[in-house]
Design goal:
- The protein has one domain: Nuclear Transport Factor 2, Chain: A, CATH 3.10.450.
- It has two helices and six strands, in the order βαβαββββ.
- Strands 1-3-4-5-6-2 form a six-stranded mixed beta sheet.
- The protein starts with a strand and ends with a strand.
Amino acid sequence: MHARPVTESFVGRPFFEEVLADDAVIVSNGQAAFAKQRVVDAHQPGTAPKFTRVEMKNVTILDHGTAAVVTGEGLYEGPQSSVTLKFMRVWVKTQNGWQIVAGTVSQ
């Protein structure tokens, strides 16, 4: 997968408001789950960190018909630093389209 430049709207607030289920559960570095609103707020314009480059690799999608499990790694680069995060997302097909119902992210 190729790197692409990242803009404010690339994966911003509207994206997460739409694809995260209202009752989605996200676990970060093994810590307690946090709610959709925390993710949405973190991606509001003007909040940090901002990435100048994002590259996804080793992405695997396990299709279960009306559900899918997606795993992979993301390299996130910004003006001051870069970090590689591993992730897992559980997507479920709903009446309104595909939504993330659960996920993890860790270093």
